[in-house]
Amino acid sequence: MNDTQQALWQTLQASGLVVGDQPTATPIDSPWYIKALQAVSGWLAALFLFAFIGFTMDLLDSPIASLVTGAVMIVGAFALLRGSENDFLEHIALAASMTGQLLVIYGIAEMLNSRDVTLWLLVLLMQSLLAVLMPHFIHRLLSAIFAAFSLLAVMADWGLGVLFEGLLASLVAWLWLHEFRLVKHMKAVRAIGYGLLLSAACLSNSVETWDIFNGSSNVEFPWLEHWMGSLLTAAVLILVVWTLLQRNHVSAGNKIAWLALSGTAVVSIASLEIWGLSTGLMILLLGFAASNRVMQGIGIVSLLYSASAYYYTLEITLLEKSQQLLIVGLLLILARWIMQKALPAQPEREHA
């Protein structure tokens, strides 16, 4: 095919119809509806195939067979995702990997004969490895979400669930602050980063998350309070603000730096009882600094969700929650007014 194209180009050159070197062929990208149809077809084909395998092989009767079959499916999915650029095959591989992971988890759970923290640790290890190794954006994103959920289960079992929000916020902050320092692994970093962002927005903001796992905690720390997790998240937020100020060459003695750090500290301390608010602010700030509108959208949704989730909790009275939200809102308005008064006005652009 290349020889034919080259001969055709030479013929056109000889006729004086074209000049210069032969342009390189660019791949034709399929429209979105074709990709959507291929995705649905791939998942449907995989569903029938795995249903046939499940009914004929009775994999759930043997934990070892389930474990081995699941591992083979994951390896096969890795080979397909690594060597294929076909959307249909990619979605079959994605479905195969998800099914294989379920079989592996089921086999491990049956072999351990328990659902304790050891199972969650193994799931966390598996999902972390898949998030790094699997050469597919959606797969890495889902693996990062599953890994974050497994981490929550492990920390809750160890009695450290209140620190989960701060730990996840620190992972998100480090990954996105070092995004452009990991250029060789940009695709993997962004996929894992978005997965952790979604996990932070959903798991950290959900007040019921701690209550779900609180009853299964095997270790208790009497000195550990809920506000300590929010304080850790606030510290991460202040560190993110400081890092961004340093990147923009704003010294510590500058008025802008003092206003930014003090305002962040005041708002963070005032919102210690509102789970997920500091995380949402951090996501929004990182998105604004990177000009990433997807991150900004996730941050805004996270802020709205955390405020509404806090408002509908039954742990404290409606009056106390209203007062807390009112204080945070007034502080934000005051911070905006102070910034407008303290910072120099920007010159208006002339319109043509």
Give the helices and strands as they follow along the chain. Answer: HHHHHHHHHHHHHH
Low-confidence stretches: 210-215
**Multimerization state:** single chain
Distance between the termini: 52 Å
Number of strands: 0
How would you describe the overall organization of this protein?
The structure is a single chain. The protein is mainly alpha-helical. Helices cover 73% and strands 0% of the residues. The chain is built from 14 helices and no strands. Helix 6 (137-157) crosses helix 8 (186-203), helix 7 packs antiparallel against helix 8 and helix 12 runs antiparallel to helix 13. The longest helix has 26 residues, at 32-57. The chain is flat. Residues 210-215 have low confidence and may be disordered.
What are the defining features of this structure?
0% strand, single chain, flat, 352 residues, mainly alpha
How is the secondary structure organized here?
Layout: H1 2-14, H2 32-57, H3 63-83, H4 87-112, H5 117-133, H6 137-157, H7 164-177, H8 186-203, H9 208-214, H10 226-247, H11 255-270, H12 277-289, H13 293-311, H14 318-342
Short summary of the structure?
It is built from 14 helices and no strands. With about 350 residues, the chain is mostly helical.
